[in-house]
Design brief:
The complex is a heterodimer. Chain A is built from 14 helices and no strands. By secondary structure, chain A is mainly alpha-helical. Chain A has a single domain, classed as ABC transporter involved in vitamin B12 uptake, BtuC (Orthogonal Bundle), CATH 1.10.3470.10. The longest helix of chain A has 26 residues. In chain B, helix 3 crosses helix 4 and helix 4 packs parallel to helix 5. The chains are: A mainly alpha, B alpha/beta.
């Protein structure tokens, strides 16, 4: 118990826990829209591009002689992630067949560009490890403020425009025929995904960012049948695994990001294993209980038809 | 239900885009106007100079073989596809500016109403309440969604996830999504393709009620089927041009009576498809009278076959 008190009074842990809580809350909100439009891997792609942004920020910081030289890494990641997600959205709009390849090229370019630029900045690819796998224990007060502002923005747009974002993610063609600003809404989802990636970068790292957006949604889908409740369940699960995972690392020296993701996947496995037991209690439903079965309806007709068809 | 088809005079060729005297009285203003519309998809021209006018209160069926451009035309009319050349007006407004989208309902052609994340019928229908600059659901959206689901006979399924509904029920959910905003004009793209018979009948009953209340309908169909008594005019496309604009295939006596069953004397032994209706260069009427109000003159079993697809 005194250990728990020690954890919550530790200023390092306080900042880290607040960041983890906010990220756990907001990442699944954006993830729900990505899964709905079957773009579950978009977060990964943006994460790759964000790495180039980190290295670019580092390069600029080093060139300007700033101390520490990675002070511009996070702003660089935000800029690159937003630019990358907008580019992906434009490519997605232009053509579906070539889009797949264009995305892949963008992803590889992101990682390669990051490693190349960090070398030019005088660092090594080891300098990128903190961004690739997270470094929540080094979160500063300024970082927490950036996280609060960005997560506030993500939640405000992601929840405030839920109806419109649902419509455009569910059926883009119908949304266009409704006169909705589909282009702007698609861009909003892309930019939200980019912001989420940069915010979650500190908690789980760029390579695992997408897991925090997607795995809670996968669990939520198993538990509920409505979009609203899937989002709610996913956010709750996101907060629980982020805070639990981070707390465990207070006592055990393991990577927080990796532990959070493994925890989430563990929850998914347990829920998925239990799900058949949960759904078996419901009797098999007749989709049309109010209508007699087809066989009874068509059987007498077959006889009538023969008479009618006789020339 | 008495829909006297002779009051809407079959227009040979095309109706004038504006200022033309409506045949059904002064109040029948054009709701959908397409003038010399060309649409290209990629390199291939899909629509080549289509003229179409749908007036207030009309029920117009858009017919034609697969690939004739029916879907392309309706998707162009509701702004989903860009017009390559020509002029489209919806409720008197050009597509790029000021169309009152709240008054337009569109039912796209879909196999499923479900997406990557499960959503209830109520949630899908409620998304139809958003249009133009209205990005947030209005107060009482739940009641409005229930009301629309009730129109298509699915009020008891409001809380069910769409992916657990049958294909016909999912199609009805999409129709409810178009109806929830109480549109003046409804554009439907093959609403009964691959749909089970109970859903087809429920759909026809819903449409009958709405048309009685003054709804204007443009519907893409493969066969008139259950809608035959409602359709006042048929427009037939072939290779992206209008080859017929006028009377629909005449229903058999008694066809419009509720409860009739579609047992037709078969002039041809098997299915008459829409492409047979318009033989190249042949007169349009040639294939129609024999089909007895349905282009699909085959056994009634065809509906069941479709369900199985």
């Amino acid at each position: 118990m005194s250990g728990l008190w020690g954890m919550v009074t530790d200023p390092f842990m306080q900042r880290a826990l607040l960041a983890a809580l906010l990220v756990g809350l907001s990442a699944p909100v954006v993830g729900t829209y990505l899964v709905q439009r079957r773009l579950a891997l978009l977060g990964d792609g943006i994460g790759h591009v964000a790495l180039t942004g980190v290295a670019l920020g580092w390069l600029v910081g080093a060139a300007m002689g700033l101390v520490p030289d990675d002070v511009l890494a996070v702003p660089g990641a935000v800029v690159a992630a937003v630019a990358g997600s907008v580019l992906i959205e434009v490519v997605r709009r232009r053509g579906r067949t070539s889009g797949d390849l264009a995305l892949a090229i963008l992803f590889y370019g992101g990682i390669a560009g990051g490693v190349l630029l960090i070398g030019l900045a005088g660092g090594s690819s080891g300098s990128l490890m903190a961004y690739l796998f997270g470094s929540i224990s080094t979160v500063t007060t300024a970082d927490v403020w950036v996280t609060v502002v960005l997560c506030g923005l993500i939640l405000a747009i992601g929840l405030g425009l839920r109806g419109a974002l649902f419509s455009v993610s569910h059926d883009e063609e119908f949304a266009i025929s409704s006169g909705l600003p589909v282009w702007a809404l698609n861009m909003a989802v892309a930019v939200l995904a980019a912001l989420t990636v940069t915010v979650a970068m500190r908690v789980v790292g760029l390579l695992l960012v997408s897991a925090l957006m997607i795995v809670p949604v996968a669990i939520g889908q198993l538990l509920t049948h409505s979009f609203r409740r899937t989002m709610l369940a996913a956010s709750t699960i996101g907060v629980v695994v982020c805070v639990t995972g981070l707390s465990i690392t207070y006592w055990h020296n393991v990577s927080p990001g990796a532990l959070i993701v493994v925890l989430a996947i563990g929850v998914y496995a347990v829920v998925a294993a239990l799900q058949p037991l949960l759904s078996r209690r419901r009797p098999p439903a007749d989709p049309h209980p109010d209508i007699p079965d087809d066989v009874a309806v068509t059987a007498p007709r077959a006889g009538d038809r023969e008479e009618e068809c006789t020339p | 239900m008495t829909h006297a088809t002779d009051t809407t005079t079959p227009r040979a060729g095309t109706a004038p885009a504006a200022g033309g005297a409506p045949s059904t009285g002064g109040e029948a203003s054009p709701v959908i106007e397409a003038h010399d519309v060309h649409v290209r998809l990629g390199a291939s021209p899909v629509l080549r100079g289509v003229d179409l006018t749908v007036r207030r209160g009309e029920v117009v069926a858009l017919l034609g073989a697969n690939g004739s451009g029916k879907s392309t035309l309706v998707r162009t009319l509701v702004g989903v596809l860009p017009v390559t050349a020509g002029d489209v007006r919806l409720l008197g407004h050009p597509l790029d500016a000021g169309v009152p989208w709240a008054r337009v309902g569109y039912v796209p052609q879909r196999v499923s109403a479900a997406a990557g994340v499960p959503s209830t019928a109520e949630e899908v229908v409620a998304s139809g309440l958003l249009h133009g600059r209205r990005l947030r659901l209005p107060r009482g959206w739940r009641a409005r969604a229930r009301e629309a689901l009730d129109l298509v006979g699915l009020a008891d399924r409001a809380k069910r996830p769409t992916h657990q509904l049958s294909g016909g029920q999912q199609q009805r959910v999409l129709i409810a999504r178009a109806l929830v905003r109480r549109p003046e004009v409804l554009v439907l793209d093959e609403p009964v393709a691959g749909v089970d018979r109970p859903s087809q009948e429920a759909f026809a009953a819903t449409m009958t009620r709405l048309v009685d209340d003054g709804l204007t309908v443009l519907v893409v169909l493969h066969e008139l089927g259950e809608l035959a008594p409602l359709v006042q005019r048929a427009v037939v496309l072939r290779h992206g041009t209008v080859v017929h604009d006028g009377a629909p295939p005449a229903p058999q006596p008694g066809h419009g009576v509720p409860g009739h069953d579609h047992v037709h004397p078969h002039a041809r032994p098997r299915t008459v498809h829409t492409q047979d209706v318009c033989p190249p260069g042949g007169p349009f009427e040639a294939g129609l009278g024999t089909a007895g109000g349905r282009f699909d003159g085959g056994f009634d079993g065809t509906d069941d076959e479709r369900t199985a697809q």
